[in-house]
Write a structure and sequence with these properties.
Strand content: under 5%
Structural class: mainly alpha
Shape: globular
Helix content: 55-70%
Largest sheet: none
């Protein structure tokens, strides 16, 4: 139940961030793409929802870069957060950063990092 609420909150945040950026440019010819949102702003929004969400997302970004050799874009992270129930490894990293999970945190994060798929651009 808690993870469903977290996924809902993260998906809502992803939608609000995108809609807000588009609303600011409604008078322009082209809509602002979601990737135009700076990563730090998106991570800041996640921190407002839950510090564990930001920490988990940051860990996911770092692990993705180490494993895949490239930086995940804001749009890709947003998609990983909001598509369906969320990308399972990312959601696991968010849960692992919850204060109640601190005893197993490092081991869990290492195990999850090994499960990151590098084909994020092509969808899940």
């Amino acid at each position: 139940m808690r993870s469903a609420l977290l996924v809902t909150a993260l998906a809502l945040a992803a939608g609000l961030l995108t809609n807000g950026s588009r609303a600011q440019t409604a008078s322009s010819v082209t809509a602002t793409q979601a990737d135009d949102v700076p990563m730090d702003d998106y991570l800041g929004l996640l921190a407002q929802i839950s510090p564990a969400a930001r920490e988990g997302a940051q860990g996911y970004l770092q692990a993705f870069q180490r494993r895949c050799g490239r930086v995940l874009t804001t749009q890709e992270l947003r998609r990983a957060v909001s598509d369906g129930d969320g990308e399972p490894v990312l959601m696991g990293m968010i849960r692992a950063n919850h204060p109640s999970q601190q005893a197993q945190r490092d081991v869990t994060l290492q195990q999850l990092a090994q499960r990151i798929r590098c084909d994020q651009r092509s969808g899940r």
